[in-house]
Design a protein that fits this description.
- The protein has about 325 residues and is of the alpha+beta class.
- The chain has one domain: Hypothetical protein, domain 2 (Endonuclease III, domain 1), CATH 1.10.340.30.
- The chain has helices at about 20-25, 85-90, 90-95, 110-115, 130-135, 145-155, 165-170, 175-180, 195-205, 210-215, 220-225, 235-245, 260-265, 275-280, 290-300; strands at about 15, 40, 45-50, 55-60, 75-80, 100.
- A hairpin with a 2-residue loop joins strand 2 and strand 3.
- The longest helix has 15 residues, at about 145-155.
Amino acid sequence: MAPAEPRPTAPDWTEVDAPRSLRRTLGKYRTGRGDPTTRISDGDFLRATYTPDGPGTLRLTWNVDPAPVDECEVRAEAWGPGSQWLLAGVEAITGHADRPVMFPDPHPAVERALRLARLARIGASGDAYHQLLPTIIAQRITAGESIRQWVRLCHELGEPAPGPADVTVGLLLPPSPASLHRRPAWWFHPLGIETKRARPLVEVARHADKLWAWTQAGPAVLAEKLALISGIGQWTIGSVLGPVCGDPDAVPVGDFHFANAVAWAIEREPRATDERMLELLEPYRGQRGRVLSAIVTTAGKAPSFGPSKRILPIAKW
């Protein structure tokens, strides 16, 4: 994977030293507790995925969490044709080179959020295909519904993960590109996935081989190429650039909650547009994604009021 693009230096921000929590860092790669492809617990991370060399399973174990980066005692094992690719990416996915940051004069809410979130790192899996599938499913629906649909899709099309049976029992690979790219939209309807989300799933599978080169070229190229795929917009792109490329500036535009959370934390405004969110994040350009994530995970949601709206499920229950 290509090195991350150079980041601005002080006085825009200063990297600070802090212990790293592998559980918090790697937890971003699991889609809900029931994710059939990824498991994480205290001291153990297991993920089945596809690589440029084929399917593979990665297992990471550690003794202390959180701990200084060089004292985490991470042990890595991998199985399957993609094992060497996965092992080569251990430092990237665990955020070994990433460091928390602090700005010279941040808003108090931003300073607090960054301080509370400093144990998490921004990893880079290099695997856009795997990250895109559950992200596309999560478009326009609630988190609970998207997790259930992702689990159903994996159980329908996912194959057993490579590796020792006592380690990988019940673990599934995500649906392969070959299993997705020719399926008609109506096939996904019993899973609760309507045509507007089914089509980009199929399109991503059709372009799966190209995703590796796009990712290696860096977040700007990946974002540009993904924008050309029908059904993939700025929310999806902003959601995957961080965990796939390690981009600390990636912001998902169009999220139902993020703009309100940022405006409430910084200006006590209960409702905001995406434009307002970007305005409030502008002083932190280069690290806007990190600031947004810190606010969302530590500052809580904006006050809620009024009726909620959701897409009615079409799955056969």
